[in-house]
């Protein structure tokens, strides 16, 4: 195992983190992407303060949780595709960590709900596409009460 702290919103940072793993082990067998950012938990409109929720907060949650995970997947693919198939016919595995919040959403957590729901929903089409390269991809929708 090789844990590399990485800014998932930076393609260069992710690329270097993956290269670190490859240097350590000679190849990359898989990644676990568990990017998570929860901003302010707030209503879309606060009737007491007459304030709308922050779009910056929403953007950051989507940028880290969804786009950051996609960056990690994209940067890992060339390294996984260059592997020989193993005994099971697989070149590599990608595991993403979402949340049950992405299934039904949670009030006052619009950005987090949208980002984790988006992550859950990009996995099936990616699985179909990546099977052509013998790469397995799956998502684990975690629940705080389940751990």
From TrEMBL:
Keyword Cytoplasm: no
UniProt-listed Gene3D superfamilies: NAD(P)-binding Rossmann-like Domain
Pfam family, one: adh_short
InterPro entries: NAD(P)-bd_dom_sf, Sc_DH/Rdtase_CS, SDR_fam
Keyword Phosphoprotein found: no
A GO MF label: oxidoreductase activity
Keywords, comma-separated and alphabetical: Oxidoreductase
Protein name: Uncharacterized protein
Source organism (scientific name): Dendroctonus ponderosae
